[in-house]
From TrEMBL:
It holds the Pfam family NAF. This is non-specific serine/threonine protein kinase. Residues 30-286 form the Protein kinase domain. ATP binds at K59. The keyword Kinase applies. Belongs to the protein kinase superfamily. CAMK Ser/Thr protein kinase family. SNF1 subfamily. PROSITE patterns: NAF, PROTEIN_KINASE_ATP, PROTEIN_KINASE_DOM, PROTEIN_KINASE_ST. It catalyses: L-seryl-[protein] + ATP = O-phospho-L-seryl-[protein] + ADP + H(+); L-threonyl-[protein] + ATP = O-phospho-L-threonyl-[protein] + ADP + H(+). The lineage of its organism: Eukaryota, Viridiplantae, Streptophyta, Embryophyta, Tracheophyta. Residues 310-334 form the NAF domain.
Length: 424
């Protein structure tokens, strides 16, 4: 079974692990090459698309490790948020999601330039002109995130990548927050982030504004780019946090007075007086040499990913992921947590033929099948006319559909119907 781009594949995974001297084709679509990095629950590979040789990055996530480490919500959020932020030139694009019984694969744009962290580690501090270029791109991405109601919360050199042209790409939205996570007091409360980049108000554990903590992290990044080391650093984590909480950092003599002023406003320990993204874009240092902000359109209406997926006739990878329960991909087909049992199948079949099969199974039984007007589903009714089940069909691609069979109340779906659908 093959899917077009932006679809989910659920199949058996490759049996041969990739090695430096070997390659593995992932689900017939991507040829895995060298290993780029290893995390607690994921590995990232460089891969090439079989159809055209295009380079991509494949983030292979172990479902077992994700669930064991309590990171399921982070991964689900990363997928959803990246969809919301797609198409910004300085935010890494998630191309599609693939899945096997034990792993989820996030197929992302390949950042050939590597991490911005490595660029600083190898070359030391940058000139202010070079740092300004990256900082402008970072602020453009952050503004886009905030306009879409997303707060990254883990901005750092390691999560800033470079593409083929040397332009910045913000990645890793696993710790991000969205507006519906804000509590009634108007603040976020989850303590998260990387120690050297974390804002003092997060350490205070009294709630914080997602936008202001991102601005603080941007200040840490800008300091590191122009100075060559982090403004707050210590082997003792307690001492490190004390320095952050007090805002104890020192600007070297070689940086310009305009940059010092900007850094002091970015790394202001008081979030109420800290510079905002809009104010950054009016700053003299930021605009030195002339700068025109590249505005990226942000949808003002409610994003699709927050709406009910049931109303959508065309489904993609992100919609299917939303059907899963706890990242057990069997949730794409069986959602045992619902009070009304739901079965889902991905089929390569015409809608008309699926409804005909439902009618064939119902013949000779006490079940009556009523098609809806557009032939995109059917109602299964008992002798008394009460609704027993719903069969809904959603188009995934030109060839594939998702069939959802909902039992109503305590009535279970006809097992013959289930087995027939699965044999398509």
């Amino acid at each position: 079974m093959s899917f077009s781009q932006n679809d989910v594949v659920v199949e058996t995974e490759p049996t041969t692990p990739p090695t430096p001297n070997d390659t593995t084709v992932l689900l017939g679509k991507y040829e895995l090459r060298e290993l780029l990095g290893v995390g607690a629950s994921a590995k990232v590979y460089h891969a090439t698309r079989v159809t055209d040789g295009k380079s991509v990055a494949v983030k292979a996530v172990s479902k077992r490790n994700v669930l064991a480490n309590g990171l399921a919500e982070n991964l689900e959020r990363e997928i959803s948020v990246t969809r919301r932020l797609r198409h910004h030139p300085n935010i890494i694009n998630l191309l599609e999601v693939l899945a096997t019984k034990t792993k989820i694969y996030l197929i992302m744009e390949f950042a050939a330039g590597g991490e911005l962290f490595q660029k600083v580690a190898d070359g030391g501090r940058m000139t202010e002109d070079v740092a300004r270029k990256y900082f402008r791109q970072l602020i453009s991405a952050v503004k886009h995130c905030h306009s879409a109601g997303v707060y990254h919360r883990d901005l750092k050199l390691d999560n800033l990548l470079l593409d083929d042209d040397g332009d910045l790409q913000v990645s890793d939205f696993g710790l991000s927050a969205v507006k519906n996570q804000i509590r009634p007091d108007g603040l976020l409360h989850t303590v998260c982030g990387t120690p050297a980049y974390v804002a003092p108000e997060i350490l205070a554990k009294k709630g914080y504004n997602g936008a202001t903590v991102d601005v603080w992290s941007c200040g840490v990044v800008l300091f590191a780019l122009t100075v060559g080391f982090l403004p707050f650093n210590d082997y003792n984590i307690t001492v490190l946090y004390r320095k952050i909480y007090r805002g104890q950092f020192r600007c070297p003599k070689w940086i310009s007075s305009e940059l010092k002023k900007l850094l002091s406003r970015l790394l202001d320990v008081n979030p109420q007086t800290r510079i905002t993204v809009d104010e950054i874009m009016q700053d003299p240092w930021f605009n030195a040499g002339g700068y025109r902000f590249n505005r990226v359109l942000v949808e003002q209406q409610e994003p699709e990913w927050e709406k009910s997926q049931i109303k959508t006739k065309m489904l993609n990878a992100f919609d299917l992921i939303s059907f899963s329960s706890g990242l057990d991909m069997s949730g794409l087909f069986v959602n045992s947590g619902d009070p009304n049992k739901v079965e889902r199948f991905v089929l390569r079949q015409k809608v008309e033929r699926i409804i005909e099969k439902v009618e064939e199974v119902a013949k000779g039984t006490k079940i009556r099948v009523r098609r809806n007007e557009k032939c995109e589903g059917a109602r299964l009714e008992g002798q008394d006319g009460n609704l027993i089940a719903l069969v809904l069909v959603y188009r995934l691609t030109d060839e594939l559909v998702v069939v959802e069979v909902k039992s109503i109340g305590k009535m279970n779906c006809n097992p013959n119907l289930m087995s027939c659908l699965m044999k398509f």
